[in-house]
Amino acid sequence: RHGGFGPACAPTCLRATAAPPVPPPAQALVTPGSFAELDLDPGAVLGKYELVAEEEVGERGLTAKRFRHKATGAEVLSVDAEDTNNVFSCNFRTLPKDNTGVPHILEHSVLCGSRRFPVKKPFVEMLKGSLKTFLNAMTGSDRTMYPVASQNKQDFFNLVSVYLDACLNPL
Question: Please, are residues 148 and 87 in contact by the beta-carbon 8 Å criterion?
């Protein structure tokens, strides 16, 4: 553990159906290197987010900043590092009530189209047409994660856009 942080929670292939794709509101929080130059103190407000904690991790050469969305309480962890790979993950706490596998079933259901991308299998389309370095979804014992990664910035933001819409606006 480091300071104020808990355990790790860690070319265009799809087109939106409505007007040209608009970056998701959270996109500013996933821009590679976007916080490296910002000198913020805990409690500082950046748009709709408040900086909760910041820590330098010298042995890894990175800076971790944890933000909280003021209206919803959703948390965003930004990790700035000298790395060409851009990584994003949308994670949800999914505590099961029994052993029927509902969180895993929902994980697969979420990636079956969304409001902006109403195609039957967007995940399969992204696997075929993306320059991704990682693209998956997984269910753990108490959380469900939707991570993506790409070294190509345009591809990365497309993957983030599709995954955020799938997670927040599934069909």
Answer: yes
| Stated pTM of the model | 0.71
Amino acid residing at 61: G
The one-letter amino acid code at 45 reads: V
What residue has token string 């979420």? 110
Name the phi and psi angles at 164, rounded to 5. -60, -45
Q: Are strands 62-69 and 49-57 parallel, antiparallel or unpaired?
A: antiparallel
CA–CA separation, 101 and 93 (whole Å): 14
DSSP 104-150: HHHHHHHTS-BSS---S-HHHHHHHH--EEEE--EE-SSEEEEEEEE
Average pLDDT value for residue range 48-69: 90
Beta bridge partners of residue 135, listed in sequence order? 148
For tokens 């599709």, what's the residue? 162
Q: Which is more confident, 125 or 1?
A: 125
For the chain, what is the total number of helices (H) and then of strands (E)? 3, 8
**Least confident interval from 42-51, 75-84, 88-97:** 42-51
Which is it for strands 86-93 and 143-150: parallel, antiparallel or unpaired?
A: antiparallel
Nearest to 58, CA basis, from 31, 81, 34, 88? 81
Greatest C-alpha distance within the chain? 47
